[in-house]
Amino acid sequence: xxxxxxxxxxxxxxxxxxxxxxxxxxxxxxxxxxxxxxxxxxxxxxxxxxxxxxxxxxxxxxxxxxxxxxxxxxxxxxxxxxxxxxxxxxxxxxxxxxxxxxxxxxxxxxxxxxxxxxxxxxxxxxxxxxxxxxxxxxxxxxxxxxxxxxxxxxxxxxxxxxxxxxxxxxxxxxxxxxxxxxxxxxxxxxxxxxxxxxxxxxxxxxxxxxxxxxxxxxxxxxxxxxxxxxxxxxxxxxxxxxxxxxxxxxxxxxxxxxxxxxxxxxxxxxxxxxxxxxxxxxxxxxxxxxxxxxxxxxxxxxxxxxxxxxxxxxxxxxxxxxxxxxx
Amino acid sequence: xxxxxxxxxxxxxxxxxxxxxxxxxxxxxxxxxxxxxxxxxxxxxxxxxxxxxxxxxxxxxxxxxxxxxxxxxxxxxxxxxxxxxxxxxxxxx
Amino acid sequence: xxxxxxxxxxxxxxxxxxxxxxxxxxxxxxxxxxxxxxxxxxxxxxxxxxxxxxxxxxxxxxxxxxxxxxxxxxxxxxxxxxxxxxxxxxxxxxxxxxxxxx
Lengths: 327, 93, 102
Prior knowledge:
Chain A is an all-alpha fold.
């Protein structure tokens, strides 16, 4: 059943990918990219990887589409037609594809217990998580504790993306930019219509509450910092769509956004420094409490919070950097 | 019985993709993406039950929220690009 | 008994979902497609989710499903309204008599 669903979804993926490449109109490409992300999320879900599916759905299909459209609003909408055929590029791509396809001939079957990936570290993680960390969601245990350095790297990457966009575009309120109060007042398009407005104001508290649920429930089910950050940012984007850029930027000011961005990464690194000061290694959560298992759980909770803060800050900052630019 | 629902939802997803690829105007594509999103939420719920893992329903709920917001964001985009409306209005009749 | 009810709800829901998909593909103009897609979207979704809720009994999963159903019930029509409004404001005029084409 999994195989059939998987093959089906992957075939659709190829069709959509061809559609994206063929589309001359960039808006069509963005919409098809949204469908592409959804198909990938469904594929991950069918393969039982719930955390990844949630992240892909929240970030790829939701926020990415919004951000790509924000960028698209600043440029002409059609792709420039290439003048001639680039034979060298085609040759390189064909060669690489053939090499990759040849490499998959040696791949073990999906779910094969004798595969190398299931032999070395993975069984150790699965066996030792109840003993060392004692949380039900092994993915969060691996992400937060066993491979904590990787996650620290990911948070720094997200932070770097945020400051990269802010260097290029800038937020209102930064040095040399207009202040939020000077943006065009008045409600945005959706604010003129009663139905989206009422519904949006009804739903925003629940969306934010759900984001908090996903954040702190990451140890027990699919969830965690990345997904929660994306959902929280989506809630604030909804508010910004309804009430307008000006109000949204006066509620969560650019300064707050930058504090969120940097604060999350600092929190993560700070936990590492704290554990070093308490006598353990960098990001060794065992020293955070009397009982090492409790220390591990506290550590994972705090770093996931850091991740959530940074992801929220970065996604909102990038959204506002695009959206406030056209005014 | 979940298999029947699964198959129906998958077929509708194919139909939505065809509309997204072929739709003459941009609103057709937005409609197709919106429908695809709702069908994905349904598929996630049904497959979560098919696999006997009801705690995966968080994904369906999160995705339902995100889909709504991204469709509204797309429509907001059209307010800022009125030139696209010319192409849309010629093709929709 | 619950199985029978569940089967019925799931089958009806699947029928509506398929109808919506076919309508999306076959209808001649944007507004007709919008009509087909949004109505059957909401109804088919509700029926299928009800079918699953009946199967789930009184558990946490049923509450989550009720939340999803409520949410889709609220936001589905809103998204269609916003889309139709955007299409109308950008100049797409609904054709008065569709039968002229047939």
